Amino acid sequence: MFLQTINQFQKIDFALKVTGPKPVTVTWFLNDATKLKSSKNRKVTYSSTSSEAKLHVMEADAEDGGQYKIVASNQFGEVSQSCMVTVVCEYSSFTFHLTIKNHESLWNRDRYY
């Protein structure tokens, strides 16, 4: 299995040549459970003419990390290839300010809530 580490907001690109007797079906998975389809942040393509399967993630985020697997199948069986992608995210620190306007509402019989 291939290992790849990228930073948050970088692109993830996979391009593989898939050859074999046609018709060939190509399916992408993330963490073996999620079947990947094209969306706003992701493009999944397969060209039977060029035999090229591609997966493109425009801006990677934490949920894009995990094991990617491509499965190619035809009438004779199936083959797969996997890659583990780690997305390194940097989170901002937050500061919260709390202003208490009515101190009496916090006190009840000398106990602080």
SSE layout:
Elements: E1 2-7, E2 12-17, E3 25-30, E4 34-35, E5 42-47, E6 52-57, E7 66-74, E8 77-88, E9 107-108, E10 111-112
Parallel strand pairs: 1-8
Antiparallel strand pairs: 2-6, 3-4, 3-7, 5-6, 7-8, 9-10
H and E string: EEEEEEEEEE
Count every helix, treating DSSP H or I runs of 4 or more residues as helices: 0
Beta fraction of the residues? over 45%
Report the C-alpha radius of gyration, rounded. Answer: 24 Å
**CATH evolutionary superfamily:** Immunoglobulins
The termini sit apart by 54 Å
| Unreliable segments of 5+ consecutive residues | 103-113
Order of neighbouring strands in the sheet with most strands: 1-8-7-3-4
Mean pLDDT: 84
Q: SS-based structural class? A: mainly beta
Task: Indicate how many domains the architecture comprises.
Answer: 1
Helix proportion of residues, in percent?
under 10%
Which term fits the overall shape?
elongated
Question: Multimeric state of these chains?
Answer: single chain
